[in-house]
Amino acid sequence: MKKIKTLWLAAAVILLIGLVVSVCAHFDAHSKDTISNNDGFLGATLNLSGAMWTLDFDQENHIFNWNQLNENYTVSSGVGGSGSYNNGNLTFSIGSPAYSLMSPINNLFQFNKEEGCYTFYQTNLAFYKDLKISNNRVRFAALSLLDASDYGFSRQYVSETEQDNVLYVYVNKDVTIKANGLTLEKWGRTVITEDLDIYLRAGWNALFYHSEWNSSDLIRSFSLGDPSHLKWILNKDDITEMQEEENAKQRL
Questions:
Q1: What is the pTM of this model?
Q2: Is residue 2 part of a domain?
Q3: Residue 71 and residue 68: Cα distance in Å, rounded?
Q4: What are phi and psi for residue 122, nearest 5 degrees?
Q5: d(Cα 83, Cα 101) in Å, to the nearest integer?
Q6: For residue range 129-156, what is the model confidence (pLDDT) as tens digits?
Q7: How far apart are alpha carbons 79 and 145 in whole angstroms?
Q8: Does the residue 196 lie in any domain?
Q9: Which domain does 92 fall in, by range?
Q10: Cα dist. 180→13, 103, 126, 131 in Å?
Q11: Is residue 86 part of a domain?
């Protein structure tokens, strides 16, 4: 089984597409529903469902094309659980991850020496200072991708000027995390990270990441919830691999 990349790396790939093509404040309202308002707590068992999609960008018409997959897959994740994808419907369930797969809650953040601040979970996209964690003895596990027959699917929404992602986080004890956001000049834009204030309850939580941009600003924020407008999207590298495999089959 090939190594599955994290959600945030997949997010960065699509985000770069958005930064290149966004020349005006266009918003794809047809694909986006109202964000659901909830506390993000999903309980002791995480149950996931929905259709799986491929996504490609039509540069000539400046639109994203969504194509639902109909193949059948066995579904797993790097932190356990099991499921399947049959007839266009995902069923996946996971309880408490093995203790050996959990990490100290401090590992949700990494110190960025270059900027002198913290970045969030294996990414260099959101910047914080004055980080405060209410209980450093808490341990967590994060589910960013589902592995469907070696293809990685992450839960996302993307348009020309916005991108949303969800990271499912298990914690073994309640914990509150607070941090002050930062404004930095990076990548030819003003990068703004909003303040962080989240309360994770023991069990599974949905952590919602929102990013939006225009020609001058790039704004990031985290909150709790699993909005209904997100879809399970096949990662960009996996789309290329799937296409190559299909082309090889047709040549036989």
A1: 0.82
A2: no
A3: 9
A4: 55, 30
A5: 19
A6: 999 999 999 999 999 899 998 889 999 9
A7: 10
A8: yes
A9: 7-251
A10: 26, 23, 11, 7
A11: yes
